[in-house]
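Appendix B, record 7
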Amino acid sequence: MPASATKPLRVAVLADSDTRWKWGALTASRVAPRDIRTDGYLLRGRATPTARQLGEVGVRADSLREVTAAQFLRAMREESYDLLVLALVGGGVQAMLHGLKRAWEDRADRPVVVTGYVGVVYEKLADGLLLRHGADLVLANSRQDAERFRAVYEGVGADAGSVTEVALPFLGGAPYTAEHDPSAEQGRGPYTVVFAAQPSVPGSRRDRTYLLQRLIGHARRHPGREVLLKLRSKPGEHTTHIEELPYQKLAQRQDLPPNFRLVYGHMGEVLDRTDLLVTVSSTAALESLHRRIPTAVLTDLGIREALGNHHFVGSGCLASWDQLDAGHRPEPDGEWVARQGVAGGGDAYETAFDTARARIAGLLARPGGLPPLAPYYTPVTAPGYLPGILARHHLGPDGTPLPGAPAAGREPGPVRQIVRRAARGAYRHGVQRVAPVIRRMGEL
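Structure tokens (predicted):
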């Protein structure tokens, strides 16, 4: 279906959270071989972003609407796109691949389908990858990820040709240029330490309270510094992961020093004034390293797969709060950083997307269109796993929307919208207030 080279490509992005919307929309703009017109679709669910979250992400689309799986598949049957980016959790990608295969079975053309990961892949590597298999391009954010992805696909006998090395699409900003001696910084305002919080890492109240108290303690030990707790979402909002114990609520019980603040906003804007970025394992560490900002990945709670900080072994960034309190500034290992697709700077970063652009251009120009989508998981290869994944999105074993699938092709009325918002709020209240209380009672 290649469109005329003089016309913008028609692009659709389907996302299920604020962070994945950001990744999907920016990825589309990076990998498209020419100008694009973007229609955004937000998959309805527990993490559907609020208007505030979308505004904070700062990524715009020509159109944007919330949909169910059935509504999205209907739109894909009725609309003609050149490129589709699936910015979803693995199960969502797999369900949409099967749904789209069914929706496009009587069409001679279809869009190029692209998917990938928002950031660091530190858990469920095989599971997540195989759930994404079947897209035309499975993007890997670094050379290291590309090698791992191909090894998994080849190891199960699946086609690994879709794996395409790129970089995280949201890296950028001015490189850090401050003097290494904080006392020598002139005209930049106070030396600023930023802790990049994560919704689900660590998960326990004890560990999250410990990290908060250490951050507050750092502010007390260094009254001349500005210490910021960078938060992803406000209470009641959800992002990619569920946050049962928001730092905002934990901070209400603490005596906060005057140089300590909680902040929201675009991560890039916060990094503009950051002199030291501290985190457990957030993708913000890669954004910070790309800009050559001193970056510390905490070891206080151990170096463990459950925390994700094991990904940074060999990075030179691992450090404890005791070390940071004493003035330590980590020095990243250049070879490790290069394998992560960051800190290339300038042309090196821009060219990271050239291969993906060329592959997409080739697929769009393919005579006779593209073959049907062919995910690795089928009713033959995963008969005890695939049907459950599809059913969670109200799809049958062949990818067809089940009878009674929510809002199949029609927009809800105002009353239904009000009820949905109330139900979503009740769910989030249960996750963030009721569930922790029940858990604590169970530990008595």
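Remarks on this record: Confidence is low (pLDDT under 50) at residues 415-420, 426-433, 435-444. The first strand starts at residue 9 and ends at 15.
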